[in-house]
């Protein structure tokens, strides 16, 4: 797991401090007694926060009656200019949550290379399960400020079943804590669950299998596929990470090589040779090119 230390931490440092930390917990939280699973989750959060009100398990039929439910929403049919993954628009993903999806994809490519689980499939599931961690309402480490727990024990931004988290607890942001309410940890755990036992997500059958682990309804699968394809296309049309600008590296000055005709006979050479360690001022000097400026990959960190 050495890769996590070298890759996920820079991603977290770049994205976490650029992201806006979360909004306060809603004031209308239920006063009912806290379920046992919710009380357990309260102990592992990074920021102190009251547990979210218990959420009823949604169904596709109920979603069509509630326009606010992610299952009733659809992405644009054909992403084009203006549909960036980072920023505003119908395909927008909060920056820190986007990095969680990408970090999970890269880690899974090392842990389970045969699986081939893409980030945009995780993003589609994350949108339908929690609207991308409550639209990015997390602390700078990626932990939900209002923990998500359902009466049947599903937890966190990926709404993982308790058994899945117990089998695949993960530390996706390498902070030394495994927390199902953390978007980095939960996304990596969801991927490990989907890729367990050599399973593949490279084809349509694998994609359907992964979606069914969260919801077995045909409507859910159709929506996951639609959002996954939209995120993939949106990233191709409008890349989420700013491209590195091209740079021109200066060419070093060429040093002329003397020819035999230009060389003077040894007996006629009366020029005094420079002492050892001295530099002959008449010899051309090799120019060492200057290093190009390091481009700014996260404008918010560079004051732009």
Please give a handful of descriptors for the protein shown.
about 300 residues, 9 helices, mainly alpha
Can you write the helix and strand succession as a string?
HHHHHHHHH
Mean pLDDT: 72
- State Rg: 28 Å
Helix percentage range: 25-40%
Percent range for β-strand residues:
under 5%
Per DSSP, the total helix count is 9
The unreliable regions are 1-10, 12-65, 242-250
Strand tally:
0
Main beta-sheet strand count, sense and barrel state: none
What structural class do you assign from the helix and strand content? mainly alpha
- The end-to-end distance, rounded to whole angstroms, is 35 Å
| Bulk shape | globular
Would you kindly provide a written description of the structure presented here, covering whatever features stand out?
It is a single chain. The chain is mostly helical and 304 residues long. The protein has nine helices and no strands. The chain has helices at 2-16, 36-42, 60-63, 95-111, 119-136, 162-167, 183-194, 204-214, 218-237. α4 packs parallel to α7. Mean pLDDT is 72; it is low at 1-10, 12-65 and 242-250.
How do the helices and strands line up, and which of them pair or pack?
Layout: H1 2-16, H2 36-42, H3 60-63, H4 95-111, H5 119-136, H6 162-167, H7 183-194, H8 204-214, H9 218-237
Helix pairs in contact: 1-4, 4-5, 4-7, 5-9, 8-9
